[in-house]
From TrEMBL:
This is Amidase. PANTHER family: GLUTAMYL-TRNA(GLN) AMIDOTRANSFERASE SUBUNIT A, MITOCHONDRIAL, TRANSAMIDASE. Residues 460-485 are annotated as: Disordered. Residues 24-446 form the Amidase domain. InterPro entries: Amidase, Amidase_CS, Amidase_dom, AS_sf. Belongs to the amidase family.
């Protein structure tokens, strides 16, 4: 049988019905993964022998009618996620001798459920950027068009799933790192509520903003993976809520939905805006009560960048040679992180409370728990660039490079966000829509996303742009003029950081 176009749920049904064995499915997946690796470069480490042993164990269990909910299903995990005995470079040539002796709790949950991990996927150095290129692994490209970026930092995961090299991949999102590649690659990405998915043991930095979550081609597949890695905790019963929603899923009919096409501040291309408006119209036609509103906040990019880079440097500086062997972009980030004062960091941390209060006020005044926006304001740009030069009429410049305005809030306040394709833009590349809710409403967010998915009617089959022209590398990765004085420009912007604290304490 040909399993290439099937979803994770369909493949698991085939495995349970013994229409295919786990070993056969893995070998089919490996064959295709080799083609995908050569064409788009989404894998950092191939674990084929390890996977073959896991598939053989899965076949033994399946033959007895046993095995967990993912038994025999080939999947991938992100390079930065711990897997005992497997190298953990985090995309950096400075980390090539790191081999963890423990496995991340989320990864362990996947293996305990019977998933067969056949590869780790590429990320940029230390997962710091929204594109996926490194000196260690090279550039990962987009299965829709090899001239374009796959996004980042879970870019390898996005490209692998979009190209059909496995139906599920575990991503990590500290500033859009699941949602950006999902958007650019035309797949589903879900950033769960903070702490809904246990991560430790894991890399220590960004511990208050990162969530591990599923990347898939359908919302149902993403929910399935999430159901395996999520855990109830003292704050919310995440798994129990999934079971409840399985019996009584949300319907859009009569459902209040808050929508904003630009948050009042976000740069956005015209094709994104018009496509989003069309989807909102379809929501209204489906019976949803549309409320136009937003949190009435400035962009959170300053607070996010300050908190993230200060935290990154606080751990990096403990190494014997903290700056040795790092790429230039990473050095810029580290230098910025080292230059942030404790007062500036605390101002950014305080602003997280202001963001939380603004979102709570928005949900409360509208008596609603669903907020829908575009995911990004732009289609995937050339992979030779670090960022788009323009979004709409806004030039994207240093110090903050704010082209992903819709991303940061969910990380800073720990709320769930699911993104899914909403159509094609003017350049025949995927556009994406984002569904958010208050912290703890993960199951409801997935319900609404699935209802949206049905309305949109997206083709979830794997994509392959191999027949398209090779990438044009005429544009440099970073204009020389733009690259001058990056840190100096960041320092000049510091006055705004301290103003943030004023908005909290007034």
């Amino acid at each position: 049988m040909n399993s290439g176009n099937k979803t994770a749920i369909e493949l698991l049904e085939d495995l349970r019905a013994q229409r295919i064995t786990a070993t056969e499915l893995l070998e089919q997946t490996i064959d295709h993964a080799e083609y995908v690796a050569e064409t788009y470069n989404p894998f950092s480490v191939k674990l084929y022998d390890r996977a073959r042993a896991a598939a053989a164990r899965a076949d033994e269990l399946l033959a007895q009618g046993l095995g967990g909910p993912l038994c025999g299903l080939p999947i991938t995990i992100k390079e930065s996620q711990w897997l005992a005995g497997v190298p953990l470079t985090n995309g950096s040539t400075s980390e090539t001798d790191v081999i963890p002796q423990e496995t991340s709790a989320a990864v362990q949950r996947l293996e305990d459920a019977g998933a067969v991990i056949f590869a780790k996927t590429t990320c940029p150095e230390f997962c710091l950027t929204g594109t996926t290129s490194s000196e260690l692994y090279g550039t990962t490209t987009n299965p829709w068009n090899r001239e374009r970026t796959c996004g980042g930092s879970s870019g390898g995961a996005g490209a692998a799933v979009a190209a059909g090299a496995g139906t599920l991949s575990l991503g990590g999102d500290g500033g859009g790192s699941i949602r950006i590649p999902a958007a650019f690659c035309g797949i589903v990405g879900f950033k769960p509520s903070y702490k809904a998915v246990p991560r430790e043991p894991c890399n220590p930095s960004w511990s208050t903003i990162v969530s591990y979550g599923p990347m898939a081609r359908t919302v149902a597949d993403a929910r399935l993976m999430y159901s395996v890695i999520a855990a109830n905790n003292d704050e919310h019963a995440y798994v129990d809520s999934l079971h409840t929603h399985a019996l009584h899923p949300l319907s859009l009919a009569g459902q209040k939905v808050i929508v904003s096409e630009d948050l009042g501040i976000a740069p956005i291309d015209d094709d994104v805006r018009m496509t989003f408006r069309y989807i909102v119209h379809q929501l209204k036609e489906a019976g949803a009560e549309i409320i136009y509103d937003h949190p009435h906040l400035p962009s959170s990019v300053i607070a996010w960048a300050t908190a993230a880079m200060y935290d990154t440097w606080s751990f990096q500086k403990e190494k014997a040679e903290p700056l040795a062997g790092l790429e230039q972009g990473t050095l810029d980030s580290m230098t910025f992180g080292a230059s942030i004062t404790e007062e500036e960091f605390n101002a950014a941390e305080d602003h997280r409370e202001a963001i939380h209060a603004a979102y709570k006020a928005m949900f409360d005044r509208n008596e609603c728990a669903t907020f829908i926006t575009p995911t990004l304001g732009v289609e995937a740009f050339k992979h030779t660039l670090r960022h788009p030069k323009y979004v709409g009429s806004t030039r994207i410049t240093y110090p903050w490079l704010d082209w992903a305005t819709f991303m940061y809030d969910a990380n800073l306040i720990g709320t769930p966000a699911c993104v899914l394709p909403m159509g094609l833009g003017n350049e025949n590349l995927p556009l994406s829509i984002q569904v958010q809710g208050p912290r703890g409403t993960d199951a409801a967010v997935l319900d609404v996303a699935e209802q949206l998915e049905k309305i949109i009617g997206w083709d979830h089959s794997p994509k392959d742009s191999a027949a398209e022209p090779q990438a044009d590398t005429a544009e440099s990765e970073l204009d020389e003029e733009e690259g001058k004085g990056i840190i100096h420009q960041m320092k000049r912007a510091r006055a705004r950081l301290l103003q943030l604290r004023g908005t909290v304490t007034k």
